[in-house]
Amino acid sequence: MTKPIVEYKDVHKSFGDVEVLKGIDLDIFPAEKIAVIGPSGSGKTTIIRMLMTLEEPTDGDIIVDGKNLWKMDKHGKMVEADEKHLREIRGDIGMVFQHFNLFPHMTILENCMTAPIHVKGEKKKEVKKRSIDMLERVGLGDKINNYPSQLSGGQKQRVAMARALVMRPKIMLFDEVTSALDPELVGEVLEVIRDIAKNDDMAMVLVTHEMDFALDVADKVLFLDDGVIAEQGSASDVIEHSENPRVQEFLSRFRS
Amino acid sequence: MQDILSISQELSRGLFVTISILIASSLFAYLMGFISGLLRLSKHTVIRKFTGLYIELFRGTSLIVQLFWLYYAIPMLFGINLGSNWIIGVIAIGLNYGAYLSEVVRGSVEAVDDGQTEAAIALNLSSFQKMRYIILPQAVRMMLPEFGNYTIQMLKGTALVSLISLNDILYYGNILRSSNLSQAPLIYLVILIFYFVLALPLIFLTRKAEDISKKGVAN
């Protein structure tokens, strides 16, 4: 049995007085594709934001590749992780955001090249070639010198994916990546994710409202409700055959 | 007409002092603005508070009193010679406007969308790299128009150095008036025109800066 690449152990998260996550236990295996579904406000996004080190858990541990993400050993005592520790671990993780978050002052090629050059210290020539290949893969080979403001939402999101992929993460996180898009642009973005899911061997966690898509690409689906994982299993188990009334109620809103 | 020409000729002897003080003090103010603006964003409370003290002290008191402090009071109290009048003028104007600019720097850095920081973290940039490659390039675009405005104000502020006996445009104007009282209105008119003409390129640059700042920023 392969070891999980990420383990959540009784992870809690509160914002002020509000407890958003009330004890999450979750294993993510290498190359596994997980879809996280559930009502808004159920804490879906918070789960992946903690893994990306954008939010610190209030309690519990997140273990990445055997190392505790948010705590480190200092003279035999476990203390809060510092930036150096977080950077060592999060290098294996990439994320695509709902609102793209492209760097507006850079061309889309520069958007892709910045991190490999400055973070990994790779050679510019090599990074440039890889970035162009990646932008071609997402169908934007003819736009490499454009600025983000010159692209449509769907194109921006595809650039964001290329930018994350150029870093060669072992785990990719997708935070409702189609929610901010006009309906007619959703397809082109899902197509790229489908391509990545089928052809790359990284683990993927997708927070999504696209049920058909989750059914199509996910090995495992988590249904999150009120801060806990209320149901999990294969995509068809959860989306098509769940007997949990909360799951059925939630899914009924997507079927008309 | 003859009068205007001769007045202009006399005033232009002060051009070098006015322009050189403007250039030196604005460079100094930009530097102070960046340093203290970024220190204001520091994680350490002591650094933030200390920088805040400098900013409020210099924003909250008048430039001319600061100028007199540096010129008359500090050398007497502490026996420190801060250098020539020119240097004292540059320091006073630079510190004063640096305090204002630091708020512009801080505000612009804070105005860059949080999503930019999150993307930088997701790409594993260090705090320094995030500042250097992602936040500052965007913040600087936002700062440009305000930097232009304050530079125009600094130009007008330089006129105060005539009060610590520096030979700037106003200084020569005052000398001229004291020897020719009936020409006072005309002399001050020409002085106004001098400052306005000097300000024109700055006004133009500020407009340009506004155009640049409209592009290439996420907010």
TrEMBL record, chain A:
Record's GO cellular component terms: plasma membrane
Top-rank taxon: Bacteria
Gene Ontology molecular function, alphabetical: ABC-type amino acid transporter activity; ATP binding; ATP hydrolysis activity
Assigned keywords, A-Z: Amino-acid transport, ATP-binding, Cell membrane, Membrane, Nucleotide-binding, Transport
Membrane-protein topology: Peripheral membrane protein
Domain ABC transporter as annotated: residue spans: 6-251
InterPro entries in alphabetical order: AAA+_ATPase, ABC_ATPase_HisP-typ, ABC_transporter-like_ATP-bd, ABC_transporter-like_CS, Ectoine_EhuA, MetN_ABC_transporter-like, P-loop_NTPase
Subcellular localization, as worded in the UniProt entry: Cell membrane
Major place of residence: membrane
Family classification: Belongs to the ABC transporter superfamily.
Name of the featured protein: Ectoine/hydroxyectoine ABC transporter ATP-binding protein EhuA
Organism name: Halolactibacillus halophilus
Lineage of source species: Bacteria, Bacillati, Bacillota, Bacilli, Bacillales
UniProtKB/TrEMBL annotation, chain B:
Subcellular location(s) per record: Cell membrane
Gene Ontology CC entries for this record: ATP-binding cassette (ABC) transporter complex
Residue intervals of the ABC transmembrane type-1 domain: 15-204
CDD domains in alphabetical order: TM_PBP2
UniProt keywords, alphabetically: Amino-acid transport, Cell membrane, Membrane, Transmembrane, Transmembrane helix, Transport
Keyword Membrane attached: yes
Gene Ontology MF terms in the entry: transmembrane transporter activity
One GO process term, biological-process aspect: amino acid transport
InterPro entries xrefs: AA_ABC_transptr_permease_3TM, ArtM/GltK/GlnP/TcyL/YhdX-like, Ectoine_EhuC, MetI-like, MetI-like_sf
Entry superkingdom: Bacteria
Family: Belongs to the binding-protein-dependent transport system permease family.
Alphabetized NCBIfam families for the sequence: ectoine_ehuC, HEQRo_perm_3TM
Official protein name in the record: Ectoine/hydroxyectoine ABC transporter permease subunit EhuC
